[in-house]
Structures are given as C-alpha cells and as structure tokens.
Amino acid sequence: MNRVGVDIGGTFTDVALSHSDGLATCKVLTNYTQPEQAILDGIQIAADKAGIAMGDIGQVIHGTTLVTNALIERRGAKLAFVTTEGFRDVIEMRSENRFEQYDLNLSLPVPMVPREDRLTLNERMGPNGEVLLALDSADVDATVQTILAGDYEAVAIGLMHSYANDAHEIQMAEALRAAAPDMSISLSSVISPQMRELPRFNTVIANAYVQPQVADYLGRLVRRLGDAGVTAPVFMLHSGGGLISVDVAAEQPVRLLESGPAGGAIFAADFARGHGLDSVLSFDMGGTTAKICLIEDGAPKTANTFEVARTYRFKKGSGMTVSTPVVEMVEIGAGGGSIASIDTLGRIQVGPRSAASEPGPACYGRGGQNPTVTDANLVLGRLDPDNFAGGAIALSVQAASDAIDATLADRLDMDAAQAAFGVTEMVDENMANAARVHTVENGRDIEHFTMIGFGGGAPLHACRLCEKLGIKELIIPPGAGVGSAIGFLKAPFSYEATRGLFQRLDQFDATAVNAALAELEDEATAFVSAGAKDADTTTRLIAFMRYAGQGWEIPVVLPYKTFANEDQAEILTAFEAAYQTLFGRVIDGLGTEITNWSLVVASVLPATSPVTRHATGPAVAPLRTRQFFDAALRKTVDAQEVDRAVMIAGHSVEGPAIIIENETTTIVTSAYRAVGQGDGSLRLIAKGDGA
To answer: Which region among 34-38, 283-287, 333-337 has the lowest average model confidence (pLDDT)?
Structure first.
C-alpha cells in the first residue's frame, strides 16, 4: 500500500511517501493561512517523485501543530465553562507555585475562559462517586438558558470528582444537546477522567476551545484531498505516539497537542531497536524548535501531563497544564529560524522568537531582516547556498552576513564570522543544557547514551552537541530531514484510556481495579479497532503511584492481568524499583497510594530488522573540498564534501567532513568519523572509540 505521512512544522511541512520502490520525501514551506495547501503541494511533489498518481495513495497520516497554535494564539471558540459551585476560579488560582521565584512582575497565564463565562451548578460528588448534593433539574435548565443567551460556540463541562461518577456531567450535557443540537460540548469525564481538578478542568477547556476549529480544518483537509484525487482514509498521530481516526481527533483534539514531535520520537525509537540500542537520546531540531526525548528499551518515555501556552516561552511551570497522554520531551526555542539578538548585558542570545517560514531567515531573501541560526550556519560554511533543500531555496550569503553585521557583529566589535560562531555556540550550549537537565531529572547518566539526530537542523548541530555532552556515538538515519513524517508511517494504531481510582495499597481492592481496567480495555480496543480491524494488539498497563503524603505520582509499569488482593506485594516491588531508579533510594515506613490507572492498547507492528553495525571501512571519494568553522578547534578547517548516496554499508569518511543530501546536511567535526550502516543510516563515532 502507498502510504504518506505529513508533518506541519513551524517553518517547513514535511512529506514522506512510502511506495513499492522505496520512499519519496520533500519539504515545502508551511502555509500559515491555508495549512492544507502545503500538504497538497507536498504530496503532489512526493507522488511525482515516486511516479504514482494521487489516486494510488492508500493511506494519509497527518500530524499538526494547529491545536497548540490555537491555544497559544488564543484563536478558538467563544467558550462557556460549567463547573461545581465554589470551584469557578480554580483555573485562575492555578497551583499557586511561582515558576520564577525572583521576578516581581511575574506574568501568569490568563485563563482560557474569562470569569463571566464560567457558570456553576449547585451539585457535589464525593471522591468515591457518592452523591453528596443532587443536581437540581431547575438549576440545569437555568444554566442552559444562560448558555443559549450568551451565544457560545462551545461548552466545557467539568464537575468535581466526575472521574468517579459522571452522572451529573451527563445530565447537564443531555439537557444542553436537547436545546442546542449543534453545540460543541466536551465533558471532563470523557476527555480526562483523572484525579486533580486543575489539570482536568484545563484539559476539557482546551479540548472544547479548539474543537470547532479543528473539526472544520480536518473536514476541509479531507474534502480537498478528495478533490485532488486522494480518497484514502486519513489518520492523525496523537501526542502519545499512535494513530487515531479523523473522527476521534475531531472529538478529542486535545490529544493532538504534540502530534508532530511524537512522530519524531517514534522514528528514533525504530532505529534504536534496529541498532540494538537500549539508551538513546532523541534529538529533533527543525526550523523553530528543538526537541529532546529519552528512548529506553526501544520505546519513548511517556507522561500523562503536558504544559502548553506558556507565558514565559519554554519556562516550565508558566503554562497551562493539561492531562493527556504524551511522549515526554523537553522543547526549547532552538531551530534554524531562531532569531539571534543582543541582551541588555551585551550577550548574544538565541530564541525563543523564530523567523519561521514567513518571512524566514535573512538568507532566504523573503524579507527577513533578523539574523538566525540558519544565517550563522551559512556564514560559517556549514550550508551550501546553492544546494539548500535540494536546491529548491537559493540562499544569500551576503544577506546572512549583512543581517549578522547589523544586529550582532557591529555592536560587539567583531566580524560576521565571529558573531556567527557565537550564535551557533549559544544555541548548541542551550540544547546541551536542556539535554543534561532532562537526563538528570530522569535519573540517567547522559554519557552512556547514543544520540539519534533528525530534523532539518539536527545533523548540522548533533556532532557538536555530542562533543559538549561527552557522547561517543551518533546515528543520523536516512530521511533525517523529514524524520517526523517518516515516523508517522511507523506508528501503531493506539489509544490510551485513563481512569482516576484512588486506593491505598494496603487496602487494595482487586475487584474494583479489575472492573475499571475492563472498562478501560473496552474503551481503548474500540478506538483501535476502528482504525486497524482484526489487527493483533498489545496491552500496556501503568499505575500512577506515590508515597502517602507526597504531592505527585510516578508511573509504574505493571503486568496486565486479573489482579487479586494478594498482588499488593508485587505492585509494591514494582513501585519501589521505579522509585529507586528515579531518586536513588526508597523511603521506609511510609504507606503507598495508587491515584490513576492508564491502559494502552496498540496494534502490533512488524519486527524491526537488526542492523549489522560497522565501526570503520574503506574511505569514500569526496566530491570536492569545502571549508567550515569547526567549533571545537575554534578555526576554519578543510573538509571533504561527500554525497550521502555513496555512504553505503561499511564505507567511511574521516572528519572534518560534510555529508550532503536533499533535506539536510550532516557536519562531521574533526573529532569524529562517519561510517555507513546497512540500514542507510550514518554512524558517527568519536575517533579512538571503535565500539
């Protein structure tokens, strides 16, 4: 079957088309006003490369930043939020944590729903699902009339403890649907049936806020694909790393928050399994951001919460926390389009602002005036101005140099090359610091990891990043420039169902747990079966656990089975092992609690073929000699330019070298050698390390 993956990024829209003769890929600039147009253009280019008609495509898999952008830019529906009396201001009070301790002018996120649009019901459920105060039908009717009079486009309903008993939320939704059948309605007991009202309320609000817009976009995309001859079913990659149908995505768009970056993590995990690597640092650098993710035992690390729409970009704690399954990664404003500037102390800073695709870096010649990371790489000789994006975009060295001179070099009394070096070193150090913090927070030693780099910018920076981090081995997969789009093609159909069910472990109620897990399995299986009928599936169970008195939980993987009350000891052992891994110790004498359960059902993918790993081999003939600035040596070096196509299994090139291909360029610094592998990837090994 011909399958196409499409990833819309902040700068480029990436397309990967898998067909009988291989893989056709391309990058086109993202169209902000009509994102579906870039998809159609990219698919047409890839289909022409593959020599197939648009009607021959059998499946389209799409990842989008539309949900994230809508929340950040506040471009959503006019929304009403219905909650329990007394909890109207939960989303404004937040957790009361100061994410920037010494900032006297701290700017907190403005609530997605203004106070006048937050309505309350005089009702109350208890934490075990008991009805403490019944919902009065007259109160429901009055709220319905208020909503109708307010001319709202969508309604989010989030009542206290609805994860334990959703009766009142359903009663409110049914009354509203009877009065306004076309109203977009989201229930927290459906979108995020978990403990903690703040993330649960945030999640249902975010879902309702973007639902009309996402449903309209997806409908328009499917329609325009059909008009272009692509009648194949369209699936979306959700933020947890699996595929769901367009219909499910339209109902629960909050699951699409990190769909693009999740594709990259899947892409890296596939190569980690093929190379037999158990500890991998996935490094995805595109035009706007860089994403770093831990991959262990062939699977990306996941989480059940995510922060979006930060007031301090990339500052943890400054955003809106939502509880939805997500591939856990750290994201920083370090992409090819990240803008360089001088701060008040006279230091070069990079990001978080980005030139994106409109107008783009100065060297694009599309009106950009600010110097970016791409401009710096061009000035340092790491990019070929005549062969960027396969020659589709001609780059101007003069425009890049002028932008760096005007904004940076002249103010710092240095030449353009020195300022460009400062830009690349700053962005590399920012990424290295993020990687160090991410691994330390997860109780890992980064020097023992192998890096897998992809995205248009990663192969340019990954080698230098490895030097800073002490990493001895780096893998650049084939198709790295469009890695996330390729990752979409490797994703399983999957769905993660969650449920809040609080229990102390010493009072473990196996009957209640088994009943809840059976419901979760039915829910998840139904969604997976809609996309992958009759497919073999796997089931993964996670309990979120903590010591009594702690404020947060850790994920604990458990075997999926019918539990008995006697399984307390097995669960405790699993929790203590996970806690020991994260924090280096366990705590004696404290009780243990389970707060939430998560069950993932996923289709089984074909096994990844093992790759024969080569450490050295015959040298390839260079196309020519070029120069680039080697940051570790602090000087310009003569480098061999090599076409990636000649880097077949076992063939090598000693650094300094530049390996070129259509979608990206790999910089091999003087301290590394590159060796072709059997799967088409490049293995960069620190010289003197022949592992």
So the answer is: 333-337
